[in-house]
Please model this.
Amino acid sequence: MRYRYSSLLRHFGLELKIRVERSSLTSRFTEAMVSTLSVAISLIIAAAIFTYQQIDPIIAYKEIFLSAFGSFDGITYTIVKMIPLLLCGAGLIVAFKANVWNIGAEGQLLLGAIVATWIALFSLKTAPHYISIPTMFALGFIAGGLWALIPAILKIKFNVNEVLTTLMMNHIASKIVEYLIYGPWKGKAAWGFPQTDIFPTNTCIPCIPNTRIHYATLIIAISSALIISILLSRTKIGYEIRVFGIKPEVARYAGISSSRVIILSMLISGGLAGIAGVGEVAGLHHRLRYPWAISSGYGYTAIIVAWLSRLNSIAIVPVSFLLGGLLVGGDTIQVVFRLPVNVIHIFNGLILLCLASGEILLKYRFKIEVKRHGTLVSSSS
Amino acid sequence: MKGIIRSFLLTPPEKSSLLNIPRGEVVVKMQGITKRFPGVTANDHVDFELRAGEIHALLGENGAGKTTLMNILYGLYRPDEGEIYVGNRRVKIGSPKDAIKLGIAMVHQHFKLIESLTVAENIALCIEEYKFFSHIQDVKKNIGELSEKYGLRIDPDARVWQLSAGEKQRVEILKALIRRAKILILDEPTSVLTPPEKRELFKILRRMAEEGCGIVFITHKLHEVMEVSDRVTVLRKGRVVATLQTSETNPKQLAKLMLGKEIPLRPITHTASLTYKEAPILEVRNLYVLNDRGSLAVKGVSFEVFAGEIFGIAGVSGNGQRELIEAITGLRKVKLGNIILMGEEVTNRTPKDIIERGVAFIPEDRLNMGIAQDLSISENLILKKYRYTPFSGHLFLNLDHINKWVDKLIKEYNIITPSSRLPAGVLSGGNIQRLILARELSGNPKLIVASNPTRGLDVAATNFVRSLLIEQKKRGVAVLLVSEDLEELLMLADRIAVIFEGKFMGVLPTSKADVNRIGLMMAGIEMAKVRS
Model:
């Protein structure tokens, strides 16, 4: 690769060369570097957008950072946003490791929310909270899992691409929620707004005092990340998921059932998204609301969370915290600078783009060499 | 319009000065090429020279640096030191694109074709660089003309995934021909071919050389060097040991140069007389199996494999061997007929069931089926064991036991690696095969199904694989050996069946087999007729 500065450098007797080589080994460090670089590059590109909007990017970033991490309230709010991201993201890691492209966490989350609402308002509205809340989590998991099972079965039986089915099923789930809140479940005390009545207190997940952190969900979220880490590295099914995800032909040769892997990975991934949905309605909103109000795209942001943590279910805990902070900061700059909500989605999109392009850094080794009068003075890779 | 397209198809993409180089003149000169990889110097000040119109063999063991050197010429790697001259002009080849512009073409060991496209579409793609639209009919016509001229049999409408390895290679050569390459590099081209296909390839190469093309032929097989090349350059451990006229050397001298010492080929004796008294381990009755295209690939095959024998299947690739093996190992559905394993019907059982009954499978496609390159060596080794105690409990893998067992296996099978945690993809070809053998043979199998187990391996690794198969046979294991290497079958097998278009042309004891007879059967003549 010839470098533009070469003529200048040669003037000083220097020669700069960048070599590109294929590499088969990638270290944790390079992986972390790619994630960090992706965020950094997206920040730079987004800065251009801010500047175009006549907003000083440094002030904007300061505002985002301070609102998310600069105060007690900010941090608690960041944690509130982190909970669904962590749950959905941890589930997606399982699916992505199995090379099953679940884009449907958003819909699976909504299914969990629907089931939680049904329990809170209709079936267990008088039950004590030590019964109603575990039931919500359990049924929320099942509902999200079953919703994810439909694309899984279509993939196994008819070889239908799961990207399309999971994505389309998000819209179906969203329409079901809309139907419920405009129709049969419309609240009597909701002043005509499209939302259900507020949940009875015995069905609300308790919060840490003075915050909106529904800690039961937070504990489930963090422990599921840990469990998934163990599941993938230490268990038989985790091994099967990884083998199948890396090479289906080898899995078949080893007698690993592809249907089992696809079904289990979709169940886990959908189930965890379902739990996130339970947490959102029973822990935060205390009613079923307009789909976008419940989730605001957690299911999609979780895809970025999963890839940013490079499918590492330990790294995903801090990553989801950071991305939660970004969502909080996004809300703030919308208000402060009167920016449209999409600014933060642009930012998310940029991260994903940079991550995808960063893949190439993992496949190749870049070596920078500086030669002085023909002799190598420095070499780094 | 058509005329314009045809004219671009038929004229070379770039008028390079190469075209005027007369036969016998130097077209490529590589001087003092050095290439270092982390921990290893793959090429150490290598000088190499190719003349127009010659077939130049590049001989050396696995890891001698042959492929690295040619990858440098093709622009896949950049040399750390050294100069390259093409047609007396010093060139820098930064990418394969540069190489192609210079008229260099390379046929890799692993083909660079798009599996889901047809032959014609793949070929159209390689000329697409010069024009956005191209008429597929013209490409087909072009393919037809070239196939006729060089005797390359190929169906331009077949999809690449349906082709056998030999046919895919022909597509790659066609790509070179259609680009009018002046320099053709072939990386171990015969490792995927059968004897007749090999002869055909050599004929094509001769023809191309006569027209002034310079051909580099990478190989580690001595008899091929003797058979096809004009000159030979021998590499050992990244250095050039000698460049000789083929007519002035002999296999013995080449072997000595290549290996650095004389290694006598291990003489292997057959079991003199096998008595088939016991019930067979594997019994295949009137088997019919479909291929990926949905047409019959195995048409009524019946045979038995007994304990303590190696049953060989010879045949040109693509005559149903793959489908037959996949049916036996449970990877492919059987259309009709029965597979009986140790007296029990196992037709259309799952691969897992077959594995559990003690069938080991050494697949032909090591890199795509034999191992997952991104998984660690240790994880690749437990592929068929992880489900069972003591490798795992109900839920968890027993990592203590796994690690101990893996370390033992690595030592026992002499897999050379600094750590069992490295991805299996970093291993060399021979070591990958050792890994597969370690995994498959460690479970005390009853039946071993091996498909071309020594393809592409160097002498040492080949001997290792062969001696392991013999050892297993002596332990009383039944071995089904499918091989396109006839010498290998004559050396190892007790009985040899010849398959042609999905049918057995006959089964004969190796003691009564000879190359000519089997060759005729491989061409589709039944045994009875061969005799008369």
